[in-house]
Amino acid sequence: MGPSVAVAGLGRSFPGVRALHDVSIAFAPGTVHGLVGENGAGKSTLIKILAGAQRPDEGSVLVDGAKVRFSSPLESSRRGLAFIHQEPNLVDDLTVAENVLLGSRDALRLRSLVDRPAMHRRYRELVAPLGLEVDPRTLVSELGIADQTLVAVARALHRQAHFLVFDEPTAALSDLESERLFRIIGELADGGRSVVYVSHRLHEIFRLTTTVSVLRDGELVTTLPTADVGDRRSLVGLILGGAERPAVDDRRAPVPVAPGTAPLLETVGLGDGAKVHDVSLRLLPGRITGMAGLVGAGRTELAAMLCGASRPVTGEVRLVGSPMRFRSPRAAIRAGVALVPEDRRHLGTLGDLDVRENLTMPFLGRFALARVLPVLDRRRERRWADGAVDRLSIKISGLDQSIRLLSGGNQQKVIVSRWVGAGARVFVFDEPTQGVDVGARAEIYAVMRELAADGAAILMISSDVEEVVAQSDEVLVMREGRLVAHLHDPTEAAVLDAFYDHDEPVQARPAPARPSPAQPSGS
Amino acid sequence: MSTGQLPGAAGLDPTAPTPSATSSAPSSAPPAGRAPGNRGPRSGDDHEPRASGRALFERLGQRYGTLVILAGLFAYFTLRTEGGTFATVDNLSSILQSSAVLAIVAAGLTLVLVIGAFDLSIAGTMVLATLLSAQVAVDTGSTDAGILVAVGVAGGVGLVNGIVVTVLRVPPFIGTLAMGLFILVGFQQKITPEGTVSLGLPANFGEWGQGSVGGVRYTVLIALGVLVLLHLVLRHTVVGRHMYAVGSGPEAARLAGIRVDLVRVAAFTVCGLCCGLAGFLTASTFGLGSAQAGGTLLLDAFTACFIGASILVIGRFHILGTAIGVLTLGMLTNGLTLTGWSSDDVPIIKGIVLIVAVAAAGLLRRR
Fold first, then answer.
1. Which residues of A touch B243 (CB under 8 A)?
2. How many domains does chain B have?
3. A261 — contact with chain B (CB < 8 Å)?
4. Rounded to 5 degrees, what are φ and ψ at B27?
5. Order of strands, sheet of A279-283, starting from the edge strand that comes earlier in the sequence
6. What range defines the domain where residue B131 resides?
7. Which end of chain B is more exposed for a tag (fewer CB within 10 A), N or C?
């Protein structure tokens, strides 16, 4: 069994906020320990302290009962702590072998910089048990997130990590890839290591962990065996505390389609010549259409065509029956089609700007002082922005707050608000609740429903099968760029079934709801 | 292909008055206890800015740290000059006068920096304009012709820069470098092989650069006008806001419906126009067009803008900051000379002060 890591009385404050207070948790070797809590509860601060990126104001980190003080991430790493994030911290321009081996003391010993064969040999030794079959000379930038995550694990193992923290690792992974990761996590724990699993996906917590700690507002609510938690609702209750529990699991009551309702947006044979082929779909007003698929199925590329971000090569997009050719997102926005992108940080929000500026950007012209004068009436703008914040209950400390400081859920609400203000009638949500905590998730679902109730047509792309089934009126499934299923009465089983090609050689098929980990990887 | 619009819904009308009475908050919103403005954080959920002394000091330090240092410099110079000659009206106007041209160029450069690009051709453009305005004035006998051609061509240079960056997708650094340091220099030599144009200038050529009204030099007034105009544009117009958006993330800006390429071209063009104006004013001030007119303009302009980005609104380029940056440099050069530093030491001190001023703002920023 490896050394044990614990934190005792840990506290850390920043100007204006107490991120952690008196948190004591013992992580037992040989277990998978879950860490849950809303955004802002203190999880990332705790992890940063363990990683040596922040120093605690109070309390200490203990390794095998002895206080340790990490003055840098290097020290934490040397002590055997490893951290695997949603976007693995790898060097894109180096090969996988280099990423795994460089920076460790081994590098000098093996003369890895010079002795490539030895480096590659050692690399293969490390990745074989992980089931990663990637040539050591491959550049990290060529890999998908799933494989990158495994490379990060291999690197941790090479550095003899006995304590691994996984922070939301499955957000960008398909179900198959997640299964592969879960198996590896299980093996890590079985091998005597300590694994900490941080996630908003509570079903994964129940599945993987034996103990779970709940943080709220910087304090530890409780640490208890996962088996004692009860069900999802109880865990959600612990996370949120006394506040009203949102109806996360509420399935959307199916909205009936009035016969003869014309679609707001439809596509006929749409394709971009690369990732998307011959997609024909219809988005009806008042309906939420879900789109499920494995990562790489082409959904984001389809969304890009719908919203003018890219030009279709084949087929056409029709808006209220008329064919449209969007030359740019600007054209799509003017026509009332809006995209809430998957990559919130780089494509959704305007990071350097504040909340108000993010809210009003697409239709600033409306706040002009006079028809011809392009000067802005900032007061009118503020008033509108205030209203938008109220309407969607966006939690901000002020309109001038930098949008970067908002939680994922609130950022998402800003973006939706922006499109509502722009007069959008068709909304394409690409992974709307990725990286969003439980409470905000429910609020986003509520926003979508409200938009639909107002007559908008919604396309919700999601890799979370549960979510897509619970929140949509009908579900489309994409695989390898084509629409392979249109489920009017969606169930998780049906969706999962549609993921797999029926022409493939028959594998041992378990109950469809939980794909077997023994299936070959790759998506 | 029609440009049809989708029918809007009254419930989501963005321009309708928005009292919270009509707000249709999602049903799962937190219960009573939520303030009507909902700006207040839920209990402990959000970061409530507590007025802790240290936090306040740090925030103030960020915004005003550099200014404090500048004020300190001002005091230093005043004290160290006999009879406080530094702070006399005469001397201060002299600082303004000598800073006017830099102010105009730096203002134009600010726009380019806002969109996240660089313009290394500003000195080259300015010098070209200097030579052109003089040469054309000599050739046509008209100062006005000189002005028009100089500013027009300079604007054209800016336009070309913009096109090279947007259409040809050449990184701005390289594109403007090639333009300013090679292409324009070549053109300068073609236009004025001797390097100076001083003979045969029309009599009124020096009016704009040397004249004044009500005791204030035209150049200072023009500089002020440019600063105010560009400040208005950046802060109060749609285009200005779009420029900040493009600087924040061109792809995100594009998805938000901004015509990114147009905005970029506009920024470069305006910068070019500013350089053109500055070029003419320089020629007018000295009564000649000289290829040496550039001096340290390129670096001074960048310095002024960067000082500006460390003041008041940290991390953002803005006209007010640039103006203060320009004044700082003017004050430094003037003050150092008055207090007896030799002209070789001036650039050294300038560099050190710049580093210290910007670092002070950075140090106080949270790690």
1. none
2. 1
3. no
4. -65, -20
5. A279-283, A265-271, A314-319, A322-324
6. 60-363
7. C
B44, part of any domain: no
Tell me the CB-side half-sphere exposure of residue A131, using CA atoms within 13 A. Answer: 19
pLDDT of residue B203: 87
Q: Note the pLDDT tens digit of each residue in A143-201.
A: 888 888 889 999 888 888 899 999 888 877 877 888 889 999 999 999 999 999 998 78
pLDDT at B53: 63
Of the candidates B175, B91, B137, the one whose C-alpha atom is nearest the C-alpha of residue B279 is B137
Residues facing A7 on adjacent strands:
A25, A61
Which of B 143-162 lie inside 8 A of A, CB atoms? none
Q: Give CA–CA dist B181/B299, Å, rounded.
A: 13
Sign of CA dihedral A200, A205, A209, A215: positive
CA–centroid distance for A204 within its chain: 14
Question: Cβ separation of B257 and A392 shorter than 8 Å?
Answer: no
User: Per residue in A6-40, pLDDT tens?
Assistant: 999 999 988 767 889 999 999 999 999 999 987 67
Least confident piece of the model among A259-263, B161-165, B246-250:
A259-263
Tens-digit pLDDT profile for residues A44-90 = 889 999 999 889 999 999 998 899 999 888 889 888 999 998 778 88
- Integer Cα distance of B128 and B154 in angstroms: 8
Q: Is B193 near chain A, with CB under 8 Å?
A: no
Are A252 and A473 in contact by the 8 Å Cβ rule? The answer is yes
Q: Exposed (0-12), middle (13-18) or buried (19+): which is B79, by Cβ within 10 Å?
A: exposed
Q: pLDDT per residue over B76-122, tens digit each?
A: 888 887 777 788 888 888 889 889 999 999 999 999 999 999 999 99
- Minimal-distance CA residue of chain A relative to B53: A15
Which are the contacts of A95, defined by CB distance < 8 A and separation ≥ 6? A136, A137, A138, A139, A140
Q: Do A245 and A233 contact (CB within 8 A), yes or no? A: yes
Query: What is the spatial distance between Cα A325 and Cα A339, in angstroms, rounded to a whole number?
Result: 16
- Cα of A316 vs its chain's centroid, Å: 31
DSSP A505: P
* Residue B35 counted as domain residue: no
Q: Rounded distance, CA A360 to CA A2, Å?
A: 54
Average pLDDT over residues B326-351: 86
CA-to-CA distance for B103 and B122, rounded, in angstroms?
A: 12
Token pair of B218 as six digits: 């035209």
Number of A–B residue contacts, CB under 8 Å? 216
Which is nearest to A387 in space by CA: A358, A356, A408?
A: A356
Determine which of A393, A415, A420 to mutate to test the interface with B (most B C-beta atoms within 10 Å): A393
Tokens of A266: 């439809």
Q: What's the CA gap between A241 and A228, in Å, rounded?
A: 17
Residue spans of alpha helices (H) in B167-259: 172-177, 184-191, 207-210, 218-236, 238-248, 250-255
Task: Look at residue B343 and tell me if it is in a domain.
Answer: yes
* Two tokens, residue B188: 């300068």
Q: Is the residue at B176 inside a domain?
A: yes
Task: Go through the domains of chain A in sequence order and give each one's CATH number.
Answer: 5-240 (3.40.50.300), 279-351+415-499 (3.40.50.300)
What CATH number should be reported for the domain holding residue B209?
A: 1.10.3470
Q: Do B242 and A364 touch (CB under 8 A)?
A: yes
In terms of pTM, does the model score above 0.80? no
Q: Is the pLDDT of residue A281 over 70?
A: yes
**Considering just the CA atoms, what is the radius of gyration of chain B in Å?**
25
What does the pLDDT average to over B250-276?
95
**A interface test, pick of B24, B255, B261, B314 with most A CB neighbours within 10 Å:** B255
CA gap A14, A2 in Å, rounded: 33
Mean of per-residue pLDDT scores for chain B? 81
- By Cβ distance, the residue of B42, B249, B257 closest to A395 is B42
Q: In what order do the strands lie in the sheet with A163-167?
A: A81-84, A163-167, A194-198, A32-36, A211-216, A219-225
